[in-house]
Structure formats: C-alpha cells, structure tokens
Design brief:
- The protein is mainly β.
- It is about 15% helix and about 40% strand.
- Strands 1-7-4-5 form a 4-stranded antiparallel β-sheet, with no helix packed on it.
- It starts with a helix and ends with a strand.
- About 20% of the residues are buried.
Length: about 150
C-alpha cells in the first residue's frame, strides 16, 4: 500500500467517524437522528479529496528535512488547471533525487488538487528548476508544499 493510499484511507476513516458522530436534530425532545447531507453541510462530496489525485512516487531511503532547499513561486488557488514553478538548490553533501509535492487544500485541510515533480540526480550545491501542474477543484485556499529526498 502506498503512502498516498494510506493517507487517503486515513482521511476517509476520519471523515466517516466525524460524520457518524453528527446528529441531525439538536432538539432534546426529538427521537432519532439523521445523517447530514451535502446540502445541509455545504460540502460537495465530489470535491473532498478528489479520487483523481496523482499517485506520488515513493523514494528509497526517503528523508525529510529538505524544505529549506525549496524556492516555490506564486501558487494560485482558484479552480482549474494550475501550474507552480520552483527551484531546488541542494544543501546535501551527496547527489540525491528530490520529490517535491504541492497540495492545494481548503482551510480545513481537504486536498482539492495535488501535483509533484521528481528531480533526479541533484548534486551538492546544484539547482534544478521545475514546474508542477495540477487540476484544482473549487474550494482550495492554500498551497502546501512538501520536499523529501532519496533514490528514485
């Protein structure tokens, strides 16, 4: 199971648990409860963690802590096809492959789009430019970058 699959499964489980704890009527004299619907909660189920997010590669001997090696350009959050440019400048002591991800999320953390760039063989002190493209669903309010390194 990939990290993306595990993350999606965890998010789905948390969402299901949160929805299971909701009741449809706060009146103490009412009997029973109803499940919230898309119209009552204001959430479009088709836009919560879209099922068409790309599979993110997994690096061998993956290491984090490379966020400072990333310079990310402007990241628009409006819906549609989006692109964000950036540069990785390696501070490592040996050549490595970098995986840069950008998730377009709502203020509550729902992922509305995701893209990645795999930069192979970046040497110490070297810089590599990249462009990440993604289809972003309506509701994104922020871009959340991630950087790991290892061997692709």
């Amino acid at each position: 199971m990939t990290k993306k699959t595990m993350s999606l499964a965890l998010a789905a489980g948390l969402l299901a648990a949160a929805l299971a704890g909701c009741s449809g009527d706060d009146d103490p004299g009412s009997e029973g409860s109803t499940s919230p619907s898309a119209s009552s909660t204001g959430v479009d189920p088709g836009n919560v963690s879209p099922s068409d997010l790309p599979d993110i590669p997994v690096l061998k001997k993956e290491q984090g802590g490379a966020r400072d090696d990333l310079e990310l350009g402007e990241c628009p959050t409006d819906s549609g096809k989006r692109a964000v440019k950036g540069t990785i400048t390696s501070t490592l002591k040996k050549r490595a492959d970098y995986l840069v991800t950008v998730s377009w999320t709502t203020s509550s953390g729902d992922v509305m789009g995701r893209g990645f760039a795999l930069l192979k063989g970046v040497g110490p002190g070297e810089s590599q430019d990249f462009t990440i493209r993604a289809k972003v669903a309506d509701g994104a309010t922020q871009c959340v970058p991630g950087v790991v390194y290892g061997k692709a």
